[in-house]
Amino acid sequence: MNTKQKHTELIKTEAKRLGFLSCGISKAQFLEEEAPRLEKWLSNNMHGEMQYMENHFDKRLDPTKLVDNSKSVISLLLNYYPKDIQNQNSYKLSKYAYGTDYHFIIKDKLKSLLNYIQDEIGEVEGRAFVDSAPVLDKAWAAKSGLGWIGKHSNLLTQQVGSFYFIAELIIDLELEHDSITSDHCGTCTACIDACPTEAIKEPYVVDGSKCISYFTIELKDNLPTEFKGKFDDWMFGCDVCQDVCPWNRFSKAHNEPLFNPHPELLSMTKKDWEDITEDTFKKVFQKSAVKRTKYSGLTRNIKFLKD
């Protein structure tokens, strides 16, 4: 085993020990195929009011502009599929938002992994990314052999599905690269057929400005009346395209205690949500990603669903 293989093996073993579902590695280089796709998606205004998507176009496509002299992109998956889901008579939250905000949990794990690399291998420079910087997570995960990008534009993995977070370490160390996996969506159109707002315009192209997740999290203005009655009771995020995907029948519950929901969350009914106070919001979502939409945003969404 040469040095490059040894370092790669070392990193993947430690990633597994830290609780990551899987770890894949690709060469840090310009994303040629993604460049025209991203440009077209932006020019068609499919990012809606997410103006930040227009920023740092070059950095999104070239990791060497994020980390000087970077050689490898280490992509990591962390399972968040819950053991139990919400009461049936409830307004719905995306499963990823049940527990503690994933940014904190994953950032800690990534820092541990980077420290381990530096302790075991030596002087290695790098940065950790958890969907809060201009990095095309899904593209890198697919390049690293962790799955393929499905027709709903989420990363899919055989035997695992898609209920996981994606994160990266971009480092200036040469490592062994993984092979790209093939697309296994076949002729299936379950996600396209089930999307309540018809946001999946065609296979592999999602109009973000029509997605329920965009409306309930990103959009700060009033919700558009033409989508009244089409939110399928989703008050924060939406899991429809993942819930109907045949590959997600293989999803297994995560084993990260911090992803477990607040005890009250799963049993809350529509009436409980309609009557939610700011104090209850703060208690239930104290460390949750739901804080991003704020109490005012969540109550706006609930009112839109109820009226």
From TrEMBL:
Q: Which residues bind [4Fe-4S] cluster 2?
A: 195, 211, 238, 241
- Where in the numbering of this chain does the 4Fe-4S ferredoxin-type domain appear? 176-205
A GO cellular-component term linked to this record: cytoplasm
What single Pfam family name could you report for this chain, choosing any that match?
A: Fer4_16
Q: How is the cofactor bound?
A: Binds 2 [4Fe-4S] clusters per monomer.
> What is this enzyme's EC?
1.17.99.6
Positions bound to tRNA: 220
Pathway entry: tRNA modification; tRNA-queuosine biosynthesis
Q: Which cofactor does it need?
A: [4Fe-4S] cluster; cob(II)alamin
In Gene Ontology terms, what is one molecular function of this protein?
A: 4 iron, 4 sulfur cluster binding
Which positions in this protein are listed as binding [4Fe-4S] cluster 1?
185, 188, 191, 245
Its recorded name reads: Epoxyqueuosine reductase
**Origin species:** Xanthomarina spongicola
Q: What is the phylogenetic placement of the source species in the record?
A: Bacteria, Pseudomonadati, Bacteroidota, Flavobacteriia, Flavobacteriales
